[in-house]
Design goal:
The chain is α/β, with parallel strands linked by helices. The chain contains 11 helices and 8 strands. It is 34% helix and 10% strand. Strands 2-1-3-8-7-4-5-6 form an 8-stranded parallel beta sheet, with helices on both faces. Keywords: Acetoin catabolism.
């Protein structure tokens, strides 16, 4: 296996543009620009790969052919689209099929590079459209590129793929698509569905018949901050991954759990997000010989958060993590100010937060976060042969 890291990128990925909409492709443009200015994309062993669109054979591994037809037709006949298209969340736009298929193709390219041994890690920051359903657009997502890529890996012979979703919203599309498939473990940390779209991701969602224990959901209360997130992550994710023994780790790294994100109510910092990426890399190293595929996802603080979070992700995936106090380069600040005048442009790659945490223990007076942890462990740990009350599991 090569020790290289593949970064899948083409400016054509910016064509996934829903118009006047929270999911603005400028966040991806500024991420790549920041990574370039910081020298991340010029590191030894980093290979930039241009994607090709996923064809119908790939897309229909996950999506209904009638839905593909609707996505193609919708820009010409928006009033008759159906399938969740033409809503405020999922407006119709020119070239919708082509740009969505390119995002899916980019994530497939990343996954194939790692599975075939051409790279140890691979990243597509433009991907992570995890809400799309087999026959319906949802949550800003047209085609579910993580699910398409995982389905491709299964076709190539993968027997155990772990999908970990750290977006603030539940990874509902990926969970539903693989609900009955014991070869895919889906793990999602998110704000409670009682408070946030899509209204799913409760702890008792644990997988379908024959796949019990392969859906894991940690639903965190509004206001949960770095220490809470890290406590929950480390109380659940390493244990379920070790029990499942994945051959490859696939992660959706939405940046919208940040405290200033306008669409959610968790209180993470960029420093906490960086700590999560380091933990994911360590788990891939421990369990999968380093095989790690990462995508972007949500994130609506377009200048203040997303570029810094995903530049940290790219740094972690390509080698040494960036020091948190690293200044943002002046050329990038100028670009960010020009692209989105009036928004605060960060001067450093840190929020000056220590993301340390106290490990979970099943004793004492539980906090709301500890109750969320306990609910998940009680629901899913016995299905994986783990003790929900033993902190060593």
């Amino acid at each position: 296996m090569s020790d290289d890291t593949v970064v899948v990128w083409d400016e054509a990925l910016l064509a996934y543009d829903l118009g006047d909409h929270p999911l603005d492709p400028v966040r991806v443009e500024l991420t790549v620009a920041l990574a370039r200015e910081l020298g991340i994309l010029r590191r030894p062993g980093v290979r930039m790969v241009r994607p090709t669109p996923a064809d119908d054979a790939l897309l229909t591994r996950v999506h209904d052919p009638r839905y593909l037809d609707a996505v193609r037709i919708a820009p010409r006949e928006p009033l008759f689209a159906g399938f969740g298209l033409g809503t405020s969340d999922n407006p119709v736009f020119d070239g919708m099929h082509e740009s969505s298929a390119l995002v899916a193709g980019a994530t497939v390219a990343a996954a194939e590079a790692v599975w075939r041994g051409a790279a140890r890690r691979a990243v597509n920051v433009a991907g992570g459209l995890h809400h799309a359903m087999p026959a319906r657009a949802a949550g800003f997502c047209v085609y579910n590129d993580p699910a398409v890529a995982i389905a491709r890996l299964l076709d190539l012979g993968a027997e155990r793929i772990a999908y970990v979703d750290v977006d603030v919203h539940h990874g509902d599309g990926v969970q539903q698509i693989f609900w009955d498939d014991p070869r895919v473990l889906t793990v999602s940390l998110h704000e409670t569905p009682l408070a946030l779209f899509p209204g799913t991701g409760f702890p008792d969602e644990t997988g379908g018949p024959g796949a019990e224990g392969t859906a894991v959901n940690i639903a965190l209360p509004p206001g949960a901050a770095d220490a809470d997130w890290q406590r929950a992550f480390h109380a659940v994710v390493p244990s379920v991954l070790r029990a499942f023994r994945p051959q490859l780790l696939f992660t959706q790294c939405g940046a919208d759990a940040h405290r200033v994100d306008p669409l959610a109510d968790l209180h993470l910092s960029v420093d906490g997000q960086r700590a999560t990426y380091l933990a994911l890399r360590a788990l891939a190293d421990e369990l999968c010989d380093g095989r790690w595929v990462a995508t972007g996802g949500g994130g609506y603080a377009l200048v203040e958060v997303v570029p810094r979070a995903w530049a940290h992700l790219l740094a972690v995936a390509t080698g040494a993590p960036l020091e948190p106090a690293t200044p943002t380069p002046p050329a990038w600040r100028e670009l960010a100010a020009a692209r989105r005048p009036g928004l605060d442009v960060p001067l450093r790659m840190t929020d000056d937060v220590d993301p340390g945490y106290e490990p979970w223990q099943p004793t004492g007076e539980p906090s709301p976060v500890d109750r969320a942890i306990a609910a998940t462990r009680k629901a899913v740990f016995p299905l994986l042969g783990l003790d929900p009350y033993d902190p060593r599991d």
